[in-house]
Amino acid sequence: MLRIEAVDAGYGRAQVLRRFSLEVAAGEVLCLLGRNGAGKTTLMRAIMGHLPLMGGAIRLEGVELSALPPHEVPRQGVGYVPQGRRLFGDLTVAQNLAIGLMARGQGEETREWVLGLFPRLRERLGQRARTLSGGEQQMLATARALCLRPRLLLMDEPTEGLQPSMIEAIRQVVARMRDEGVGILLVEQRIDAVLAIADRVAFIENGRGGEVVPAEQLRRDHALVERYLGV
Amino acid sequence: MRGGGARAWTLHLAVLVLLLAVQFVLPAYHHGNLARIMVLASYAVGYNILFGYTGLLSLGHALFFAAGMYGLGLAIKLGGWAAGPAIVAGLGAGLLLSLAVGALALRTSGVAFMIVTLMFAQAGYLAILYFGAFTRGDEGFVIPREARMIMWLDLADAATRYFVALALFALCLLFCLWLMRQPLGRALIAIRENEERTEMLGYDTFRLKLVAVAISGTMSAAAGAAYALLFGYVGASFAAVQYSILPLLWVLVGGAGTVLGPFLGTLFMFYLIDIASGLTTAYMMIAGVVLVMITLFARSGLLGEARRRLWGWLP
What we know:
The structure holds two protein chains of two kinds.
Chain A: E1 2-11, E2 14-24, E3 29-33, H1 40-47, E4 53-60, E5 63-64, H2 72-75, E6 78-81, H3 93-103, H4 108-117, H5 119-122, H6 134-146, E7 152-156, H7 164-179, E8 183-188, H8 191-197, E9 200-205, E10 208-214, H9 215-220, H10 222-229
Parallel strand pairs in A: 3-8, 3-9, 6-7, 7-8
Antiparallel strand pairs in A: 1-2, 1-4, 4-5, 9-10
Helix pairs in contact in A: 3-6, 6-7
Chain B: H1 5-22, H2 28-53, H3 62-77, H4 83-105, H5 110-130, H6 132-135, E1 141-142, E2 149-150, E3 153-154, H7 158-179, H8 183-193, H9 195-200, H10 205-231, E4 233-234, H11 242-254, H12 261-279, H13 283-297, H14 302-309
Antiparallel strand pairs in B: 1-4, 2-3
C-alpha cells in the first residue's frame, strides 16, 4: 500500500532522514519506534508533502505522493493525526468535523459514522475544541482525519498525555480501522501502547531505518527495544 | 461560523432596519455622516474578510479602494461613460488588481505579505500622481452632478445617497454573513486558525487565499466606486497609505472576525475623531489614547469582546 523508498529529507541543509525505506500494507498497524529526534515526525511530514524530499520516493498504491502538491496528498486518501492534535481550537467540535468532511466532499453518512466511533464527541458538538479535555481533543483530531475516509492513516503519538481509558478508546478505533482494511502508520514512544495494538514494529535511529519485526517477536525479545530506545 | 443562524440573521436584519429608519429623524449633518460611514463600513467589511476571517494582514487595501474609485471616475471623465457601466469598470479594476496582487503577494506570508501589499499600494498611489494628466494627481477631480445619475436616481440627492449607501452596506454585510456559513467561508476560517493543518486536510490554501483576496479587493473597489459616485470626488488621498491603515483600525476596534464589528468600528472611529476635533486641534492624541484603552481592555475589539464575554453566538 504505502512504499517509502530510500527517502532523504530534512530541514534546509540539515538532513534528518537518510535513505529511509518502509512499507505499510492495507489492514495493518505498523508502529514506528524511535527516540526523540530520530526522525519520526519528519517522516510523517514528508509523507504529507510538507517537507520536500532530497531523494527517494513515497508511493501510495502506485501513486507517487512525493510528486504531488501537499493539498493533493489527503485527496489520495491519506489521513493525518498530528502530534499535539492541532485542532481549530476556536471552532466547535461540529465545525471541526465539518471542515474535515468538506475537504473530500463527505456528507451526513460519514459524519454519523465518525460520531458512532466517538460517541463522546456527539455530546460535545457545540463545544469549542480548545475547551475539550486532552483525550477528547485526541478523539476529535482522529475523528477529523477519519472524515476523509482515508485508506492510510498516519498517527503521530496519539496516546501522548492521555489517561488509560482514553488510550483504550483510541486503541479500539485503531483496531476497527485496521479491520476495515485501512493501513495505519503509528508513531509512538510508549512501548506498552505499541505492543497493545501493532502488527509489526519498525525502528528508526538517527534518520535511518532499523529492523522491522512482528510485534509478537518484540514481546519476547526485549533486548531489541533496549537497543533502539535504551529502556 | 459561530452561533445560531436564525438569531444572527435577525440581529443583522434588525440593524439594517434601524439604519433605514433613523434617516427620517437624523439632522442633516449626521444624515450625511451616516451615509459616508456606511460606504466606509462596506470597505471595512471587505477588509475583514481577508484580515478577520482569513488571517491575512494587508497594508495595501487602499489600492483596491482607489481602483474602484478611479476605475469608475476615469470611465466617466475620460470615456464619457454613464454611471452604471462605470460602476462595472470600477469593480472590474478592483477584481483584476486584487487577482494580480494576490497571485504575487500570496507567495509570501506574515510580515513579508504586509510589506509586499504595502509596496503595491504605494506603487498605485505613485502611479496616480505620475499620470496626473489623466488623474489630476494630488488635486483629484470632481464627478459632475449630471454624471451621478443611474436611470432616474439622482445620487447627489441626500436621501437617495443615503438609500444607495445603505443598499451597498446591506449587500456587503449580508454577503459576509452568508459567506461565512458556506464551505468557502469555513475553509477561510480554518486557514486563519491553522493554515498547515488546513492544507493537510486536503484544501488548496493558496487558491482559497487568492479567492479571499479577490472577494475582499472587489468589495473594497465597490466601496471606492460608491464613494466617488455618491460624494462626487475622486482623489489621490484615497490611495495613500492612510486609507490602507484605516480599515485595519476600524476592524480592530469593532472586532476582527465579527460580521458587524467593521461597521461598529467605523462608526466609533468616525465620531471619535469628529467629536475630538471639535474639542481640540490635538484630536489625534485623544483618538490615540482611546485606541490604546481599547487595545488594553478589549483586545478582541468592541464586538469581539462582547462575543467573548456575553454573547457567544454572535457571528
